[in-house]
Amino acid sequence: MKEKIKVWLFERWQQNRGACLGCSAGAILAIAILLFGFWRTFFVVLCGGVGLYLGRKSDRDPEFFGRLADDFLDRLNRLR
After folding, report:
1. What does the pLDDT look like over 9-68, one tens digit per residue?
2. Hey, how many other C-beta atoms are within 10 angstroms of the C-beta on 68?
């Protein structure tokens, strides 16, 4: 019985990977909202999104953070 369930779950995963991930993400988000509240959960999701965005930019352009730091320091120096 246990083996049949494993095979069934694996088949569902192979056929509907996006739906499985979406359902899991939705369930985790709902639990987080119930446990921590909307705004705290929103903040965590927002920070995760910003981290994902910066990480993907860094993967595509290895010099991204170096230029970002240089731009920040240039702007900081202009304020003085």
Report:
1. 889 889 988 888 888 999 999 999 999 999 999 999 999 999 999 888 888 888 888 888
2. 13
Residue 12: CB partners within 8 Å, gap ≥ 6? Answer: 20
pLDDT digits (tens, 9 = 90+) for 19-36: 888 889 999 999 999 999
Q: Are 10 and 2 in contact (CB under 8 A)?
A: no
Tokens of 44: 């965590």
Per domain, the residue ranges of the chain are 1-36, 37-80
Look-up of token digits 């730091």? 69
pTM: 0.65
For Cα atoms 20, 24, 28, give the angle at the middle one, nearest 5 degrees: 175
Q: Judge whether 12 and 20 are in contact, CB under 8 Å.
A: yes
